[in-house]
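I'll show a sample.
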Amino acid sequence: MVSGSLIVGLGRSGAGLHLPALRRLPPELRDPMRPVLGWDPAVGSRAETAGVTVVASPAEAATRLDPATTVTHVCMPPRGRATVLAALAACGFRRFVIEKPLAVDEAGLEALLRIVGAHRLQVVPMSQWLSSTLTSRIEKIISSGMLGRLISLTFRQRRPRFDRGLRDKQHPTAFDVEIPHSLGAALRLAGGGQVCDAAWGDLRAGGVVVPRLGSAWLTVAHRGGVRTRIDSDLTSPVRERRVHARFTGGTLTGWYPGSEADHHAQLVVDDGRRRGHAVFLDDALGACVADAYRYFATAGGQESATVTDRLAVNADVVRLLADAKRCAARRNPGS
């Protein structure tokens, strides 16, 4: 069992998603009687957050918990994470769960990885679609060959994000919001590749325009021959997180849970002769947090293939998204 939990960034991600996931952890992974500490660099004060004991700095957190065995959830937006990570590492914190994406560009990624290496930090990226039951089921279908060879993947992520988008100062483009989830899953399912094309669109509401934060799409050519198309629309009136895969011998369509309000996924598999439809529990975020705590509790700070793979996949996500942004900027030089 770890000694404690510290949430850095008490906004939507930290207080709205990570904190409830901590409450769902089994007692063998985290003592439910132990308080959760919180520090919000953006606020810089002791603003109250329900269920969290707020501290003013990493130094104060280190006096309340054993920093070497505390799991620190870095939930602040990706800009400036390397500086915050360095401050935490200087106070002795070594175990981190870091929200997606790791950074908004290659420079930020390299700065973060330098700190990880210099302080020998243990990092588990918060890439819940890699812990998703739906992703796991699709991966097994691909590896089994039951539908033949995988030809293409198509992801569609739609939801209304006007309120947050109009005040968002931290996510520079729509590529940084939803697409890191699906791109990570695509790399897990089809392997590495390169961006072929990409574009973005503005968010428009009530006469206000937020450049590049309304929509985004990209295509990826995987080294094994698979093609992936990802579309994200943050101005849609409906919610949907959908994946469609074409094989030489059939198709499958899956729906990831649309929000934290319901943790069920669906999967339809069609081999041309019969069509199967399954509905199943898929608390991917809770599973990702549990995986991280299980790793920290049992590995004792030792590296593992699973953790190395997650960090590598998420680093590739940042690099590919940086390529996609450059491609989108070339398509529309004035944006």
Q: What stands out?
A: The mean pLDDT is 92.
